[in-house]
Amino acid sequence: MTSKELHPRRHVFHGHASGVAAHIRRPKNAVLDVKGCSTLPVIGGHTEHKVGKTKLGKWVSFQSAHTSAHGDYENAAHGVATTRGKPFDEAATKTSVSARVRGMNILGRVSIADLNLYMESRTGPGMAQPSIRLKGNRIDGVKIDGAKRGVYTPLGEPLRIRLDGGKHRLSIEAPGRKAYVGEIEVPRGQELGVHRARRQRLALEERH
Q1: Strands 138-144 and 147-148, sheet pairing
Q2: Is residue 94 a contact partner of residue 135, using CB atoms and an 8 Å limit?
């Protein structure tokens, strides 16, 4: 029996979701334990974790957190075939992770009524890299110092924040993207479409 027969190629599942966690660096150093963590084993399967009302020192509190991770072959018969010598590269897979946190409060100043995130990846024959898709992501009931800040959905209307006219420092981060840090000037009494301008700039950067 050859080495390849003894140790055939296999698909290794990766997927994890965290409910609430933080590393406070200012004004003091404080590491807050992860609450609501679901981690998928390399063989795939399903895992989920639920946490009730929790307070993490003076920093963060929330009413509930629920996370899950799931990974399996798209076709059950193809999964069985891999146990009989069929190459793992020929079996399509799907991995999904989700996290939902309700009633979050940060330092008594920032509150989020409902935060819901979902992401899935798929692999299949002829795919050099997995496809990644977001679905139903939504941050609802955001308040800062008691003032409503709107609803954020990546495929819907951009988050609108009311600021005083003048210059402000802006930082935008997204998975797989180059972080943006810069200065914007908000015209007094007008709306500045930073969200749309940033997307257009990213598209230009990708084309070049």
Answers
A1: antiparallel
A2: no
